[in-house]
Design goal:
about 260 residues; Rossmann fold; alpha/beta; 2 domains; two-stranded antiparallel sheet; seven-stranded mixed sheet; about 40% helix
């Protein structure tokens, strides 16, 4: 649905088809006031998803507010590629770690699509983890959530995963100030990633080999122009089978690699 349809179906409490076919739908005083309030907030730049308090991701409903980033359509490709790779590798009972889970959209979508998966998800933000748990409950899936700065909470647990997946912060200090104003309603900690936007990729890649099984898979969402740079970081840490996938705008958005057995054991 486009933005106008999202707002009107929310205000009128109807689906998209009814919006066009039901001639009895009317804006009474309360609904007119609600619509006016939504439009005023939108004019100030607040994202419509925050205003409505929900969004869809891979066909599932998610609660959203300023505790975490709004799930983007591009991130659906990240989840789709992860599912495809696991199935290609014949991993029937995958153990998965979603680093920096935010709203929980990646972890929850994986749990919905891979019924036999053991899904873990971490975030440094307690508020984000609370929202992610709400979304797991809303979608009736079980995800093991833990508060962790990258791998810190796993250091002594001896846990290893078939897949580590992440959509980490990747906005450089230079680019941050030029973002659309609605982006500034979202938590900056989930966006900013240092001078070149690669800080979190460096941290994750340098440690990921210790938390992957066998030829485990590491898969990222990356920013515009970052794919080759992230591939270079992966190669230097001994990862192999590097590949990438493009988003709906033909931007290299997903980078994938497997653990290098010779270097990481």
């Amino acid at each position: 649905m486009n933005e106008a349809e999202l707002v009107l179906t929310h205000v009128l409490n109807c689906d998209r088809l009814s919006l066009y076919l039901n001639k009895d739908l009317k804006l009474n005083g309360d609904k007119s006031a609600l619509l006016s309030s939504i439009l005023k907030r939108r004019m100030l730049g607040e994202p419509v998803q925050y205003i409505l308090g929900e969004t869809e991701f891979m066909g599932f409903k998610f609660r959203v507010d300023n505790r975490a980033l709004i799930p983007r359509p591009e991130t659906e490709i990240l989840v789709e590629m992860a599912i495809e790779k696991l199935r290609q590798d014949g991993i029937v009972w995958p153990k998965i770690l979603d680093l920096g889970t935010g709203s929980g959209c990646i972890a929850v979508a994986l749990a919905k699509n891979l019924k036999s998966a053991d899904v873990w998800a971490s975030d440094v933000s307690d508020a984000a983890l609370q929202l992610a748990q709400e979304n797991a409950d809303l979608n009736k899936v079980e995800v093991k959530f833990l508060r962790s700065d990258i791998f810190s909470a796993l250091e002594l647990k001896g846990e290893k995963f078939d897949l580590i997946i992440s959509n980490p912060p990747y906005i450089s200090d230079r680019d941050f100030g030029s973002l659309a104003k609605e982006i500034f309603f979202e938590p900056q900690v989930a966006l900013k990633a240092g001078k070149d936007g690669l800080d979190f990729y460096r941290r994750i890649i340098s440690q990921a080999g210790s938390y992957l099984r066998g030829e485990g898979l590491l898969i990222f969402e990356v920013g515009l122009g970052q794919a080759d740079l992230v591939k270079g970081l992966l190669e230097r840490e001994g990862f192999n089978h590097l590949s990438s996938a493009r988003d709906y705008s033909s931007i290299e958005r997903i980078v994938m690699a497997k653990k290098g057995l010779l270097k990481n054991g």
